[in-house]
Design a protein that fits this description.
The chain is an all-alpha fold and 208 residues long. The protein has eleven helices and no strands.
């Protein structure tokens, strides 16, 4: 029972911190603000998290861990044909990334420009960790002949860049309203086709 109460309290503190960060941003938020939101003492908060940076990492990385694991760690189970799997990955990638919650969390990261260690830590412990699974996925496709031989890490950068190419500038400038599921799926379709036009060998199966 004690462990359940402890885990429950931690989640309660994270929920309070998330609400405060989303409202005030990282820079303006104080640990006392989180305490006030969570209705707890500073000693309680510091018993779970060593610093504001520590709790921020947990809000961003921990808050996206389940979706990230489901998306990136099961790439081979997304379909029978490689190109179908690639499109399904792209579709799920955009649906996750451009959901209201993910967009709010990403804006928290992009809005913080003064603490350089935050972006680096989130990249190394979050984005880079998950990119590894896509690199392996594309490397297998190159070995099997589904894609032409190339550097798979560069191919991942091209793939993810294409998936966001229609959306990222508007997102960063806060000119992107909620985008529909159908529109995101069409964006994914176009991005994957563009990627395959560059990396597809002469013999392939079709998405249709």
């Amino acid at each position: 029972m004690a462990r359940m109460r402890t885990e429950g309290k931690r989640e309660e503190l994270l929920a309070a911190a998330t609400a405060v960060f989303l409202e005030q941003g990282f820079e303006r938020t104080l640990m006392s603000d989180i305490c006030e939101k969570a209705k707890c003492s500073k000693s309680t908060l510091y018993g779970y998290f060593a610093s504001k940076e520590d709790i921020f990492y947990e809000v961003v990385i921990g808050g996206t861990a389940q979706e990230g694991a489901e998306l990136f760690m099961n790439l081979d189970g997304l379909g029978d044909c490689f190109e179908e799997r690639l499109y399904e990955f792209g579709r799920r990638y955009l649906l996750n990334l451009y959901s209201p919650r993910f967009m709010a969390l990403r804006r928290l990261i992009f809005a913080d420009t003064s603490n350089l260690s935050i972006g680096r830590t989130i990249y190394e412990n979050g984005i880079q960790r998950y990119e590894h699974f896509v690199v392996e996925f594309l490397a297998k496709a190159m070995d099997s002949g589904s894609l032409r031989p190339a550097d798979p890490s560069i191919a991942v950068s091209h793939l993810c860049g294409l998936l966001e190419s229609e959306l990222l500038p508007r997102f960063l400038l806060r000119a992107l309203d909620n985008i529909s599921r159908t529109d995101l799926e069409m964006v994914a379709q176009r991005a994957v086709e563009s990627f395959l036009a560059a990396y597809r060998p002469s013999i392939h199966c079709s998405l249709s």
